Amino acid sequence: MSCGSSRIACVCCLWKPSFFYFSDVFQLEKDRLEMWYSVSNMGLSALQKKHAGFTLIELLVVISVISLLSSVVLSSISDVRASARDAKRVEQMTTIIPLIDQYYYNNGQPPGQSDTSGVHISNKCNSDIKGDIKNSNLFGRVPSDPGGAACNDNSNSAQFYGWDSARCGEDYCISINTLETQKAKEQLSERFGIPIQSGKVRDQKCGGNANIVNADFNYCFADQWGL
Q: What's the Rg (C-alpha) of the chain?
């Protein structure tokens, strides 16, 4: 039936284009909603991923940073402790050497004469010089290296004060076996007038038990006592 045959048919002609128009609008709205839903899902997935936890790479980076910071802090703490130990060594040695000298002039003989095989000067190690120091009113107490090495450990790295009353057969020498900082070596060198050679502050280089010959610092008394 043609559009011109009747009024009803004519209405159909008018309504048909309107149907297609609304159909197109509906399709566009549907496409827009589907796109919005897709984008929303993408955003939700990203948000869920963000709060799901660290990835393996992120965890490795965090662990590496923590390890680096820990090593820096531990190194700094170690340096501070070494400096503190050396400061105590310098203080004690600059005190005990003049007192040993004074002991000799007061008593007409050096302390620790029987320690001919070398000993550690320490309150925990038995020695003749320990007894002489404790029985004298000069010293107050027996000095001890803050490192506290075992009494029988005379290795180059052991931390102790050494004493030998027969170094090279006739000398009396005291030592700091291990110094941990250059500053301490410079202070001792300046205080006792002993040059630093090969990284050590040594008054004498021959013989000696208690590792006197290899110590980072040694000081001998025979010359000034006329022995």
A: 44
d(C-alpha 195, C-alpha 188), whole Å: 9
Kindly indicate the confidence band of residue 18, based on its pLDDT and cuts at 50, 70 and 90.
very low
Q: Is the pLDDT of residue 56 over 70?
A: yes
Is the dihedral angle over the CA atoms 25, 26, 28, 29 positive or is it negative?
Answer: positive
Q: What is the mean pLDDT of the chain?
A: 81
- At a CB cut-off of 8 Å and minimum separation 6, what does 70 contact? none
Q: Where are the domains of the chain?
A: 85-225
How confident is the model at residue 15, as a pLDDT? 40
Select the more confidently predicted residue: 143 or 54.
143
CA distance 174 to 95: 12
Torsion angle of C-alpha atoms 146, 149, 150, 155, degrees rounded to 10: -160
Residue 217: CB partners within 8 Å, gap ≥ 6? 93, 175, 176, 179, 185, 188, 194, 200, 201, 202
Listed in order, strand segments (DSSP E) in the chain are 119-120, 161-167, 171-176, 196-197, 200-202, 217-220
| Residue 176: CA count within 13 A, CB half-sphere | 29
| Closest by CA position to 207, among listed 165, 157, 152, 178 | 165
